[in-house]
Amino acid sequence: MKIKLIFLLLFAMYLNAQQISEKFIPLPFGSVKPTGWLQAQMQKDIDGFVGNLDVIVPELMNDPIYGKGRLQKHSKAKDLGNLKSGDAEGDDQYKWWNSETQSNWWDGYLRNAILLNDKNGTEKIRKYVENILATQDEDGYLGIYDKDLRYQFKSENGELWSKATLYRGLLAYYEATKDEKVFKAVEKAVENVMQNYPIYASSPFSSGETFNGGVSHGLTFTDVLERMYFYTKDEKYRAYSLFLYNDFSNTYQSEEDAQLKNIFNINYRLKSHGVHTFEHLRALIIATYAAQNRDFDKALATYLDRINKVTTISGGAVGDEWIAERNADATHTGYEYCSLQELLDSYNLLFQKTGSADIGDKIENTFYNAAQGSRNPNHSCIAYLKTDNSFEMSGTKNGETEPGRKQTRYKYSPAHQDVAVCCNPNAGRISPYFVQNSWMKENETTFVAALLMPNILVTSAAGNSIQIENITDYPYQNHFKFKITQTKTSKFTLKIRKPNWVQKVNTNEKFQIENGFIVINREFSTNDYVDLSFEARVEIKTDPANARYFTFGALLYALPIDSKEISGRNYFGTFKDFTYEPKSNIRYTFKNNVKTKYEQGKIYTELINQNNNKPEKVELIPFGKTILRQVTF
Q1: C-beta neighbour count of 378 within 10 angstroms
Q2: What are the tens digits of pLDDT across the range 358-388?
Q3: Please, how many CA atoms are within 13 Å of residue 276, restricted to the half-sphere of its CB?
Q4: Domains contained in the chain, number
Q5: Tens digit of pLDDT for each residue in 430-466?
Q6: Selection from 108, 320, 93, 106 nearest residue 217 by Cα
Q7: CA distance 522 to 396
Q8: Mean pLDDT over the full length of the chain
Q9: Single residue among 490, 507, 535 that ends a domain in this structure
Q10: Which of the chain's termini has less CB crowding within 10 Å, N or C?
Q11: Which domain holds residue 520?
């Protein structure tokens, strides 16, 4: 009995050590809501393609793949309305693809609607959730396969992937509404997976030796398990995550960068389908914290270093659509909008685990530059693929052709159905995920402004209701007013991430700088505020190709290229495809020792016109407000 007690105490110490090793505590979805320009942009999205994808491509969104249309042994590949010329992945993926399209869209849509208190969406979301829960079988199964097929695969399938995309949205709905029946349904569904793929007595990722993109996507089921651990603190979810990652690493996968054997190969270069590479980072992070093993620590460090090499100056994660052993290049490597969301979300998790302020800079760079720069500033649509230097958007990558493939991804569209309706659903997810992770806790009375943006946090500490609103136009201005409202006076700590570019912090508050965070600890009244601003300067930096580029604060600046807009396919109402041709092909190079200044949102400098080799005065604008542009010189 005494030995058993000692074992239990040691095990409890081990569990506590795991919890202590994580720096920050994530908050439930819905705790933080956008305000200011970000709220306005998200409202524009939900009024646009994010809120209307079900009417833009109704044949994909109305497929009852989770219910009466579940896949069976003799189900045929579906016509998704896309061009398959040059695609080598095979037809099996087209069987499950609608589950990804639907569930990622609903995940983004419901998160936007909830954060915006969108009344039109509330009833629509409730009906969706009720309808999905009605498809759950008695044993807990909630997915896309009929009984003759589920959990019995020897080839490409979307079993775990379809569940991951669905359950993420359902759990967000639960967090925001506290509807217990939704949580119980997901809990039962997850248990069904764990029973049918028993831990270390099955192999969910064994699927033959041909292309298995849906199978490898399924590693993101660890997202669901991590969130289940967040609610329950039950170690079985983390143990199962580690099992999934190990099985993924030890089975045949078609060129997957995140397998341990590839990570530990010192000569290996990233080559996979980019979105897999960046979403699998989350699974590796979760496995690392579950394993508490130095080998996993080394693997994570190696993988992060490799990702740095394939990330452009704007935060764009290379994958157009394969990384193909290339390093990031401003002109010749593109990035997929799906990859922007997946890398941003992986960095969100890494930030929460490590508390590293540098990761916050990476997240903001991706969102404020690459993601904003892949949106169309004039129409409700996004680029499927985009490059930092964007000299044309007519389907191909700056005019480059690809043998055997009719490339159409370099354009703006509300759906991109000719390729795949995957990037647009993910474009609907990126803002809510960004907002959700902007505040965290370090402990019960330490609130961390991890990512800077206009938003409002509603939380509590020791029974005291606390609301903190960040009133700011960041990143377009660098002034912040944290307005604090609480039910009673209390003492707590406010930690505000200080970006690396900050030259000076201006505030009347007494503060300390600790590991990249401004720390303010004092008693706050029921109506209080913290006022501060950051000083920045124009920075001229050098990219890996020895080209120069300009930043001010969190923003990358670019020279816009005047273009001709060409309307393409009309989906529904005002929702259209757009391509862009440059009106000029002039390129510019950097001029040394030139005076450069920032004024009213623009950078003024001189560049050398390559046509006549003469200097010209130019105005650079934020990268995220451009369509065609030159950003490196």
Answers
A1: 10
A2: 999 999 999 999 999 999 999 999 999 999 9
A3: 25
A4: 2
A5: 999 999 999 999 999 999 999 999 999 999 998 999 9
A6: 93
A7: 56
A8: 94
A9: 535
A10: N
A11: 440-535
